[in-house]
Amino acid sequence: MTYLDNAATTFPKPECVYREMDDISRNYAVNAGRGSYKAAQKAVKVIDDTRAALLKLFNAEGIADVVLTASVTQALNIVLAGLGLKEGSMVYISPYEHNAVVRTLHMLQKEAGFTVKEMPLTKGLEIDLGRLEFEFAQNHPSVVVSTAVSNVTGYVLPIGDIFQSAKKYDAVTITDAAQAAGLIKMDVRDLKADILCFAGHKTLYGPFGIAGFVMKKDVELKQTFAGGTGSHSLSPEMPQNAPERFEAGSCNIVAVKGLYAALGALEQEEHYRKIKEITEYAINALEVVPGISILGRTKGQLGIISFVADGYSSDEIGKILDEEYDIAVRTGYHCAPLIHKHLKDEPYEGTVRIGLGYFNTEENIDKLAEALISL
After folding, report:
1. Domain ranges of the chain
2. Which of 198, 190, 157, 358 is nearest to 272 (CA)?
3. What is the pLDDT of residue 245?
């Protein structure tokens, strides 16, 4: 299989991820924080070491806590529900947001009646920073949410500039770094990001089942669920300190160990260089294929390309590539409803998306281009 669906999940993983997950599964996959025996203590150390590695990756040592969750969708639900949004709150989101943000806010909005506004775009589908600054001045933001890299087009959003403007009004700033963590520099201090949500199984090259968020210590979130933590067990109240107050239930220690292995496997600058080069190679290869149109082209586009083909729906292209050429791509609307209105891709039932990963090669792209030429 030629795998070009790395925006959904990176595959394969570095070999050390498989090795370390197999080791812990066989030798100490026990319930961390629930026992004082050696294996349980070893499992706790894996979690502590993973938190420390994540804080280092995001330059958040000493100013933030790491909360581990089962998915970035769960992380975003905990964060957005915990903000205590109410009538009068003004929430700005980019048009590139995933349904993990859009649907969660929609659900909360039905109960609380706050306002959600989309950030304005230029004709080139980039965030219009000038107009956004004007809108902030007219309607002061309470919360600003922006993905770091679009999962539809690979657009790298200017979150540093967005958050810098938002902080003039003391807004809480949140970034969904699912497509960016481990690929581009994500420094929460420089970016003015109060909360950064990450997915272990995407550009961090870890397994499914582990994700979370990095939250600055001065941000307040209310609890949205409760349960066992292994501490203060006689009290009906959850522990009040982060991260424990957000981590009810047993930790997926096998997935944590896989993520920890992944964090040490790829050097970020080399990762970025390789993805940048193969993205440019893929754009150049697709641009010359008759009948193929790349949608949402932006300067610095990274790792993800959406295209359509004359005379075909996106799903038809996906089936042809899979059944006749053993090429795996993603088709449709990619769980990001807002940006597709701007792409005007409804006649094609969405786009064909290729997600490029560290282990993709130019030969993979050549195979895709040859398949499309033969349509």
Report:
1. 2-10+267-373, 15-263
2. 358
3. 82
